Amino acid sequence: MTLKQWFKSGSPWVWLNAGAIAISMIMVVGLLSLILVRGFSHFWPTPILETTVTQPDGSQVQVMGELSRSQTLPAEVMRDAGVNIPADINLVTRHLIKQGNRDVWGRDFVWYPETGMEEWRFPKEAMRLERREWGDFYGYPVRVKEAGRTVAEGENLWPELQQRIGRANDIFDEIRRIERREIGRVNQRMERVRLDERRLAMDRRAGRIDRATQEEAMAELEARRAELNEEYGVLQNRLDELYQDVRRDTLVARVMDGREVDLPLAQIIRAIQPNDMSVVAKTGLYVVQFWEFISGYPREANTEGGILPAIFGTVTMVFVMSIIVSPFGVLAAIYLREYARQGPLLRTIRISVYNLAGVPSIVFGVFGLGFFVYFVGGAVDQQFFPEALPSPTFGTPGLLWASLTLALLTLPVVIVATEEGLARIPSTIRQGSLALGATKAETLWKVVVPLATPAMMTGLILAIARAAGEVAPLMLVGVVKLAPTLPIDGNFPFIHLERKIMHLGFHIFDVGFQSPNVEAAQPLVYATAMTLVVLIVLLNLTAISIRNRLREKYRSESD
């Protein structure tokens, strides 16, 4: 076969398509592998190394910490950076050590060249403390003190330390529960009383109520405020007792230069000695840390702790968006396909709707901010929440406006998928239904639309995938770095559509590019990206499962 015949046979295009698919699959698998490996490895306990580094001036530095990563660079690059490298060395390996103790050394991560570095040691007594503030701590435990009195040291120190850290964590959890739930509930009710008083005053000025009615209602509100103040005082006293109790114990630890540091146990979440842990113990700790990452709250400007608020905000926003976009998209597609008169105007409308999918997402964010937040939200505040003004209720970015903006962004996807599904329904089915005496509306809603349901679900799946990963428009209409409360809680009306939310995509952007401690946040970026991918896969699998069930159901009914 000649080359010309080979081209005419079409085989080159088959190989070209196969090669393109193979390259695409390799890129996707490589991307997912990088995210999963870096994300999952973040929770595995890393050994603590100890070594001595001789500086160019002859002084020695004691180093303790975890190896973050290593690099081999040309010696000239290191010399240009001011590092003294002997002239006979061409390549230099340097190690990034996470030595923690930010409150002691001033920075967490330090590069050390391998030249001048002694052999690494991994002492079993080396300890890593996970703290609520100032990042991790590395050192050796010396003694445990209770109210300034030594209660444990030597062999008894480690079990006593673990027991007292558990006690401190239990007290801290109770403090957080009181502050977030009980005091938060009281504050919300007190705010409601304040707004009711303002509303009464406005009604009195507008002449909607008389003076006697106002005074009677104000007396009731004053009595309610007195009850809430009393309840708040009880909770505050309980908090004072807990704070005094949790500050009782301290740990004296020795850092690498020999200094002893007092560490309140109230600031310690966990103390481990990874060099003395078995594989089983490390596996158990891995599971615990992974669960705390999924179910915990962020700390240290999002560079530590968990991502529960971000997961919750992402899932809630996707659900609200799905509830909004599904009926609007399906009804628009049904009208365009079944009822609208086909002609130039309809083609223009259809092309316009389809092209909405190509508009940059940030444009939708600008539109959502201007129309939904300022125009619609401002009108809602004027009409229904005048007593709260000038503080906006719905006239500020929040969950509802973020969901509406993404619903508008994903609307073309649902319309296109639904229209294609309706177009695939054979005309014989419609004609058969009409021939049996059904009206056009009955044929549409009882025969055609159920058969097109899998196509609608396909559109919804695509909408969910896009909405869960969008970040740019959300930064304008409701997503924030740290949301003080979740959009769903136990306080009436339980679902708070006006609240700002956290989002996994924005969390990744914020931690990766806005964090003051980028090296410490880097593993968290991969772990959060891994969570976002897994979350989108789960949402899509759920929608695909529903679509397949519907497809089988209506296929059997149509046979």
Topology:
Elements: H1 3-9, H2 11-41, E1 49-54, E2 60-74, H3 75-80, E3 91-98, H4 102-105, E4 109-113, E5 127-131, E6 137-146, E7 149-153, H5 157-206, H6 211-246, E8 249-254, E9 260-264, E10 268-272, H7 279-295, E11 298-299, E12 304-305, H8 308-339, H9 344-356, H10 361-384, H11 399-423, H12 427-435, H13 440-451, H14 453-469, H15 474-477, H16 504-513, H17 518-558
Antiparallel strand pairs: 1-2, 2-3, 3-4, 5-6, 5-10, 6-7, 6-8, 8-9, 11-12
Helix pairs in contact: 2-17, 5-6, 8-11, 8-14, 9-11, 10-11, 11-14, 12-13, 14-17, 16-17
Describe the structure.
The model has no long low-confidence stretch (mean pLDDT about 85). About 60% of the residues lie in helices and about 15% in strands. A hairpin with a 5-residue loop joins strand 1 and strand 2 (about 60-75). The radius of gyration is 31 Å and the shape is flat. By secondary structure, the protein is an alpha+beta fold. Strands 5, 6, 7, 8, 9 and 10 form a 6-stranded antiparallel sheet that branches. A 4-stranded antiparallel sheet has the order 1-2-3-4. Strands 11-12 form a two-stranded antiparallel ribbon.
Task: Write a concise synopsis of the structure shown.
This protein has 559 residues and is α+β, with helices and mostly antiparallel strands.
